[in-house]
Design brief:
With about 350 residues, the chain is α/β, with parallel strands linked by helices. The chain folds into 2 domains: about 50-135 and about 295-350, Ribonuclease Z/Hydroxyacylglutathione hydrolase-like (Metallo-beta-lactamase, Chain A); about 140-290, Metallo-hydrolase/oxidoreductase (Rossmann fold). Helix content is about 30%, strand content about 25%. The protein contains 10 helices and 18 strands. It has helices spanning about 5, 20-35, 100-105, 140-155, 170-180, 190-200, 225-230, 245-250, 270-280, 295-305, and strands spanning about 20, 45-50, 55, 60-65, 75-80, 85, 115, 160-165, 185, 205, 220-225, 235-240, 255-260, 285-290, 310-315, 330, 340-345, 345-350. The strands form 4 sheets. Strands 3-4-5-6-7-15-16 form a 7-stranded mixed beta sheet. A 7-stranded parallel beta sheet has the order 11-10-9-12-8-13-14, with helices on both faces. Strand 5 (about 75-80) and strand 6 form a beta hairpin. Helix 3 (about 100-105) runs parallel beside helix 10. The longest helix is centred in the middle third of the chain and has 14 residues, at about 140-155. It is globular. The two termini are about 35 Å apart. The structure holds zinc ion.
Length: about 350
């Protein structure tokens, strides 16, 4: 349910069925309810539980969970009369569930084709075949939780966070970590809705100044500006970029602004400069605490080595040619307009 994978859903013809994991569909329905999608909601979506499959003709697709920084992420193993195709989707090993990503690779061992993402080798030179171990100190979701808990205890004023709101599990865990440190996480109503959908037992607090006319369920607690001003060290405020104006009321009381994979994501976005400029103008310290959702290069190689496919096809990268494995029989780097043909387990490229 990241925009680069689903942003076009609302432009598909209505009769086109779209399969996704059951959790993705659950999130997609909330995105649609909250107006957090492009164009229109696609109505013809079918949710498949992890580990289950669906068939169209003689082709069967298993939906296999993988760990990424969004709830619902999955890859697929597609079984056809001519062979097996595995597509990873986006994945990582530094999330809450590295064992899920490992299990994906092990389950899919021996596929005829592995299609893998390669985002982390997009920038800079990487000699993947020479990598024998992960780089040291790759920050994990668990590390981030600990850092946030320490900051919650040490900072004397309000902490503001800008996370990616579809990484629902991170927010769920932050509610508990901040709570244990004596702080209440206060969210905007969209973020609160996503957390409440997947974690209905969590105590949900929303900030009055980010309601923007929305009604919230009775059991959400609405926290006011004056409550925060009375005890800024008792709260953490999750603030979406579109609500950044709310900092004007709070600026004297903010200890730090943690940018945690929320929008705008990086300096390549025009609004990034606006975000940091406003913080500078308000005198609010900015710290980048993003983790990203993509496997580091060593782990891309681990995935390809583990699946050991007859044919490796890297994509979702500015430099897919940097994704490689000695255990793949061959590698194909298709270019636009070419067709990948799988016939009796053998794979080739055809140019029209
Ligand atoms: Zn992606």
């Amino acid at each position: 349910m990241h925009i680069d994978h689903m942003g076009g859903l609302g432009m598909l013809a209505e009769q086109m069925p779209v399969y996704m994991s059951e959790d993705s569909l659950r999130l997609y329905r909330r995105l649609a309810a909250m107006g957090d999608i492009q164009v229109l909601a696609h109505e013809n979506c079918i949710g498949i539980p992890y580990g289950q499959s669906f068939s169209r003709g003689d082709i069967t697709v298993e939906v296999l969970q993988i760990d990424h920084d969004v709830i619902g992420a999955s890859g697929a193993r597609i079984t056809t009369p001519d062979g097996t195709i595995v597509y990873t989707g986006d994945y990582r090993f530094h999330g809450f569930h590295p064992e899920v990503t490992r299990a994906f690779g092990e389950t899919c061992r021996g596929a005829d084709i592995l299609i893998t993402e390669g985002v982390s080798v997009s920038f800079g030179d990487v000699d993947m075949l020479s990598l024998t171990e992960p780089e040291p100190n790759i920050p994990t979701e668990a590390d981030l939780q600990q850092e946030m808990a320490a900051a919650a205890r040490e900072k004397t004023g309000l902490i503001v966070i800008n996370p990616y709101n579809r990484n629902v599990e991170r927010l769920h865990k932050l509610i508990a970590a901040f709570g244990a440190a004596g702080r209440t996480l206060v969210m905007d109503p969209v973020q609160a809705d996503y957390v409440a959908e997947f974690y209905p037992e969590d105590p949900i607090c929303v900030y009055e100044k980010t309601l923007n006319g929305r009604n919230v369920p009775e059991h959400f607690r609405v926290v006011t500006l004056s409550e925060i001003l009375d005890a800024p060290n008792r709260y953490v405020l999750q603030l979406d970029y579109q609500d950044q104006y709310a900092l004007l009321d709070l600026k004297e009381n903010v200890s730090v602004y943690y940018h945690m994979d929320g929008a705008p994501l990086g300096s390549y976005e025009e609004s990034y400069q606006k975000m940091t400029s406003l913080l500078e103008y308000l005198g609010i310290p900015y710290e980048y605490k993003g983790l990203g959702g993509h496997a580091r290069p060593y782990f891309l190689k681990w995935m390809a080595d583990t699946v050991a496919p007859k044919t490796l096809i890297p994509l979702h990268s500015f430099r897919p040619e940097q994704v490689n494995s000695e255990r793949a029989g061959q590698r194909i780097l298709p270019s636009e307009g070419q067709t990948v043909v799988l016939e009796r387990g053998e794979c080739r490229l055809e140019t029209a």
